């Protein structure tokens, strides 16, 4: 096994003989798996990356007092300055979220600033996935009716709360609707949301910078002033349209086309949808914002109040990872059990051995692997993956 | 909570308070009537069922009670438990008094507790006699439990842990209480020594139901629960790995069984496993399936020779290790087996409360010809003084002193 796995490398650097091919024993190629460095932000231990966006990263973290899983959004001041209204939007999101508390609205638990690194940390509820991610995974990019209904009514509850607090979200779309482990929907991303002044008696607003596909005609058409709550009703309508059909109500090859279609093209609801749902979508996607259904009307609509039997199989929350286990453990392990100085090396030889072993195991029994997944404790030694960094090649020097 | 909101909160609580005309037999020793477990009992029917000359009604007003001495604090200092006297019947009671001005999120939990307890009726589950609000306080009246809580007993009199027969009797009734709760689809989520109360006859009563959660949703039956307990930080050492893991698999009523395993160690060893270690390390130990155990000659001799515990922190032997009493005693193999079974990592392989009631460790209690108070001798219950008169407050004070702790570090909780 040893010999067959040997690696041949050529070196052209030598003066004596440029064509020497040196044989390196697989025992001598050494890898160092990436260190899971234990890092704290306030009282939170930081774990794996959950997602990345233009503003920065979102990482999993763990509250060391309650041991509750959380997510932390890490933003760099430098990058924020480059995004139009970046800094302003973050400040607004923080200001808004601090005042909100509802089970269908993501909660902001802590905000930390690191002035030296120029970083802002926002600690929020831990969510497993977003609706967009699930849609992308689904066979025909849509949910079964009962599943869509389950999420939509939660979206309405969250929106009702936001509107009662004078907050217009302005960017409702599947990508901003996250799911917690118990499949509670959480409205997130308040970067472009607006808080109405408490003294104002109407909800007229003048700007909206949400995602173009989900913008209502009054925004697309450039109206100077429009009722804000109805913006969210339209976007929620587009979202529902998307969840049940896998399509968007209005599309266009460019922004101009898209906005033109939103303003002028009549709505076409796919025929396979039942008439009650069609009437709801039509009511929510009425071009005239004053005639469009209000949130209260949507909530009391027959489609929202009636029960939907779950006949089709639901799109799983987890996808390939049916568990979404806590990602902090390797970090804790390195903190408590492995000393800082001690580096862990793995040779190519060991790597091949473990690969072969893994293959044997998978051939032997599928149930074995299933058991292993259930017992992370038994898989103490992590196997290096493709992202291993070559630490040192001991015999690369010319002899 | 602002002063403005307070009256509204009070009226909310008043409406859910146990109806004042519920009549309950409070005579010591007569409380363990085998009630039929019913999910909802109308107070009237219950009153009829138990009406007899000895029945006492508990008024929902502070004037009927005379508060005597402080027993302990609850809910992280939000409230306190007091020994009190019911003036009309001249009987002793415990009253839990919450300061509503101090309660924030906790208020919802107290509300949840009152509502849950009201729906339950079992000899091993706490029963409230009445509850009401006076000014900014919420009073919850309940029977006085003579031996207070199991953890307090251990802290005051059994620093090396309870003797095995007493342990078996306590755990048996805890399991009975849990079996009932689980049959009602309730997960307790906070089974711990301080929530195991013992009355003067030795009957065990489970409290702390404000942490509980119902498995059934309003609309459909859910087999698993995913919600993380709002006050989890109080009970982390007792929490099951699957609850702590917070993954998509969720947890079930088996989570309580894991806590029972921890409680056996807590009461058997005299201190809870993972005491004084960082919670993150406790998490790592639990998720990597290193389990705590009972300390005795069979489990501790090795580690004393080596000077260090071998199997991690879970079973790390604290100051107790140096204690000769521990290295010379021997728990029965069935006791060790029960702990190992209850602490099984995989919930589906873990026995249910009913399974454990048939375990050898629990079955041995049938052969006992003594009751729990006899095993706890010479510790006397608070309610030992049978004559109730003017001297009682003093006597109670005395026995409270005897039972009270030198330091307040034992976080005990009615």
On the 0 to 100 scale, the average pLDDT of chain B is 77
Radius of gyration of chain A: 27 Å
Taking the sheet with the most strands of chain A, its summary is: 6 strands, antiparallel
The tally of beta strands of chain B, per DSSP, is 11
How many helix segments of chain B? 15
How many runs of DSSP E, i.e. beta strands of chain A? 18
Mean pLDDT of chain A: 81
By CATH, the superfamily of the largest domain in chain B comes out as Transferase(Phosphotransferase) domain 1
**Outline of chain B:** globular
Proportion of β residues of chain A?
15-25%
The total of helices of chain A stands at 13
**Greatest interface by residues involved:** A-B, 33 and 26 residues
Largest sheet of chain B: 5 strands, antiparallel
Low-confidence stretches of chain A: 1-14, 363-399
Q: Unreliable segments of chain B (pLDDT under 50, ≥5 consecutive)?
A: 1-54, 302-318, 385-395, 401-412
Cofactor (chain A): Mg(2+); Mn(2+)
Keywords (chain A): ATP-binding, Cytoplasm, Kinase, Magnesium, Manganese, Metal-binding, Nucleotide-binding, Serine/threonine-protein kinase, Transferase
GO molecular function (chain A): ATP binding; metal ion binding; protein kinase activator activity; protein serine/threonine kinase activity
Catalytic activity (chain A): L-threonyl-[protein] + ATP = O-phospho-L-threonyl-[protein] + ADP + H(+); L-seryl-[protein] + ATP = O-phospho-L-seryl-[protein] + ADP + H(+)
Question: What does this entry look like structurally?
Answer:
Chain B: This is Protein kinase domain-containing protein. Chain B: It holds the Pfam family Pkinase. The complex is a heterodimer of chains A (399) and B (414). Chain A starts with 6 loop residues before the first strand and ends in a 6-residue tail after the last strand. Chain A has three domains: 7-35 and 343-393, no CATH class; 40-125, Phosphorylase Kinase, domain 1 (2-Layer Sandwich), CATH 3.30.200.20; 129-305, Transferase(Phosphotransferase) domain 1 (Transferase(Phosphotransferase), domain 1), CATH 1.10.510.10. In chain A, 33% of the residues lie in helices and 19% in strands. Chain A has helices at residues 77-82, 86-98, 131-137, 145-164, 217-220, 228-245, 255-264, 275-284, 295-299, 302-305, 329-336, 348-364, 366-374, and strands spanning 7-10, 21-24, 29-32, 40-41, 44-52, 56-63, 69-76, 108-114, 119-125, 129-130, 167-168, 177-179, 185-187, 194-195, 204-205, 226-227, 346-347, 389-393. With 399 residues, chain A is an alpha+beta fold. Chain B is α+β, with helices and mostly antiparallel strands and 414 residues long. Chain B folds into two domains: 7-143, Phosphorylase Kinase, domain 1, CATH 3.30.200; 150-376, Transferase(Phosphotransferase), domain 1, CATH 1.10.510. Chain B has 15 helices and eleven strands. Chain B is globular and about 55 Å long.
């Amino acid at each position: 096994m040893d010999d067959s796995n040997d690696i041949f490398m050529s070196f052209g650097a030598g003066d004596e003989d440029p064509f020497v091919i040196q044989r390196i024993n697989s025992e001598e190629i050494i890898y160092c798996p990436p260190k899971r460095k234990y890092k704290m932000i306030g009282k939170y231990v930081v774990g794996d990356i959950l997602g990345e966006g233009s503003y920065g990263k979102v990482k999993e973290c763990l509250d060391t007092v309650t041991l509750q899983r959380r997510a932390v959004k890490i933003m760099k001041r430098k990058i924020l300055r480059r995004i139009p209204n970046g800094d302003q939007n973050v400040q607004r999101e923080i200001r808004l979220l601090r005042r909100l508390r509802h089970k269908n609205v993501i909660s902001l638990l802590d905000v930390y600033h690191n002035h030296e690194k120029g970083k802002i940390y926002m600690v929020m509820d831990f969510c497993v996935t977003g609706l967009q991610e699930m849609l992308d995974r689904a066979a025909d990019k849509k949910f079964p009716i009962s599943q869509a209904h389950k999420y939509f009514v939660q979206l309405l509850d969250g929106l009702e709360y936001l509107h009662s607090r004078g907050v217009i979200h302005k960017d409702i779309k599947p990508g901003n609707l996250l799911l917690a482990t118990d499949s509670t929907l959480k409205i997130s991303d308040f970067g472009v949301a607006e808080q109405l002044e408490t003294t104002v008696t109407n909800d007229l607003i003048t700007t909206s910078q949400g995602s173009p596909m989900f913008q209502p005609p009054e925004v697309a058409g450039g109206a100077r002033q429009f009722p804000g709550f109805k913006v969210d009703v339209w976007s929620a309508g587009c979202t529902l349209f998307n969840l049940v059909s896998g399509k968007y109500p209005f599309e266009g090859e460019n922004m101009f086309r898209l906005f033109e279609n939103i303003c002028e093209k009549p709505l076409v609801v796919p025929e396979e949808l039942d008439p009650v749902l069609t009437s709801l979508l039509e009511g929510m996607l009425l071009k005239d914002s004053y005639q469009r259904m209000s949130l209260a009307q949507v909530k009391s609509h027959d489609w929202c109040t009636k029960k939907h039997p779950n006949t089709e199989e639901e799109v799983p929350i987890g996808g390939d990872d049916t568990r979404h286990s806590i990602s902090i453990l390797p970090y804790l392990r390195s903190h408590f059990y492995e000393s800082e100085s001690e580096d862990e090396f793995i040779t190519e030889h060991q790597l091949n051995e473990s690969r072969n072993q893994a293959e044997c195991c998978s051939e032997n029994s599928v149930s074995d692997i299933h058991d292993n997944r259930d017992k992370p404790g038994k898989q103490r030694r992590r196997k290096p993956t493709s992202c291993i960094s070559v630490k040192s090649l001991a015999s690369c020097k010319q002899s | 909570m602002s002063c403005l909101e307070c009256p509204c909160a009070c009226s909310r609580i008043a409406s859910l308070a146990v109806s004042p005309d519920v009549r309950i037999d409070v005579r010591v020793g007569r409380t363990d009537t085998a009630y039929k477990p019913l999910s909802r009992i109308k107070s009237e029917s219950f009153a009829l069922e138990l009406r007899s000359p000895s029945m006492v009604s508990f008024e929902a007003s502070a004037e009927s009670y005379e508060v005597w001495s402080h027993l302990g604090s609850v809910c992280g200092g939000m409230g306190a438990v007091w020994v009190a006297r019911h003036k009309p019947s001249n009987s002793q009671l415990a009253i839990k008094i919450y300061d509503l001005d101090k309660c924030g999120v906790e208020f919802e939990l107290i509300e949840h507790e009152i509502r849950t307890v009201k729906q339950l009726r079992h000899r091993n589950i706490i029963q409230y006699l009445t509850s009401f609000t006076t000014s900014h306080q919420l009073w919850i009246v309940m029977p006085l439990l003579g031996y207070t809580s199991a953890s307090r007993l251990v802290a005051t009199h059994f620093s090396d842990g309870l003797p095995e027969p007493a342990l078996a009797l306590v755990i048996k009734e805890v399991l009975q209480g849990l079996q009932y709760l689980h049959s009602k689809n309730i997960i307790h989520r906070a089974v711990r020594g301080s929530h195991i109360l013992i009355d003067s006859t030795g009957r065990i009563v489970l409290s702390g139901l404000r942490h509980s959660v119902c498995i059934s949703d309003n609309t459909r039956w859910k087999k698993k629960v995913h919600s993380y307990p709002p006050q989890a930080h109080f009970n982390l050492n007792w929490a099951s790995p699957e609850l702590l893991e917070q993954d998509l698999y969720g947890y079930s009523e088996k989570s309580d069984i894991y806590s029972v395993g921890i409680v056996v160690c807590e009461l058997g060893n005299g201190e809870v496993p993972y005491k004084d270690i960082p919670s993150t390390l406790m998490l790592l130990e639990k998720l990597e399936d290193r389990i705590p155990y009972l300390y005795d000659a069979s489990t501790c001799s090795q580690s004393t020779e080596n000077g260090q515990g071998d199997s991690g922190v879970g079973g790390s032997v604290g100051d107790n290790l140096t204690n000769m009493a521990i290295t010379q005693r021997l728990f029965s193999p069935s006791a060790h087996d029960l702990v190992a079974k209850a602490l099984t990592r995989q919930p589906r392989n873990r026995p249910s409360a009913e399974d454990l009631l048939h375990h050898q460790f629990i079955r041995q209690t049938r052969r006992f010809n003594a009751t729990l108070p006899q095993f706890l001798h010479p510790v006397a219950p608070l309610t030992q003084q049978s004559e109730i008169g003017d001297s009682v407050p003093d006597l109670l004070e005395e026995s409270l002193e005897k039972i009270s702790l030198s330091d307040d570090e034992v976080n005990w909780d009615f």
